[in-house]
Predict the structure.
Amino acid sequence: MFAASATIAAFAQMLLKKSAMEKHDSVLREYLNWKVIVGYGLMFLGMLLALFGYTKGVQVKSGSVMESIGIVEVAVLSALFFKEKLTKKKVAGIVLIIAGILIFNLA
Amino acid sequence: MGEQAKAEGGRKKLTFLSVIAIQSAVIVYTGSGVCSKIASGHKGSITLFGREIHALTWTGYLWLFLEVCCLGLYAVLWQQIIKRFDLSIAYCNRAFAVCWSFLWGILFFGERARPLNIVGIAVVLLGIILVNQDAN
């Protein structure tokens, strides 16, 4: 449930970043455009999935941990769509973050 | 700084203040998780056409509304953040939500802190520092 929520959120981030990179006429237009609206619509869908997960007894700290799978997805998708470099340092940092999350989950 | 950052495709140096700004948004985001958890504890039911339907109580819906408010504020802040920084860098910083949620779990829900939780958070923090160094 939380993994699906993270994947939906990762794709939503791509739409948000795409909109953030474009020039808009006004601050309001930065938010009121289809990419941001669809992006946050997807985030809302992910939120509902997370809520369903919580009703099944998942703790707040664990829910957040499981959603963090999205970090890898966002890094890969950002490299594909926005040419953000996946440097050795960044990959090592992400590996550490995921390792930290796994250690956290072992408790 | 916004115009220049936008022209460079959102690549701006991460200063200490930038990290504080990102973490402020992350704290607001984790607030939504707290509201979600509280809302899930307010289960109720309504009877419609003779059938009992499980739902939330009115208090539950109020917490759900507060969750949406947190996400709304987070959305406003996040859009400004990803305009200025690489998405992958900003998203890695968002991983520190683990620490904030852990803190809220202890403070508001009496969840227990274990040594491995602390070690895990320390490793996450190391990872974020490494990613942030790469951003500069």
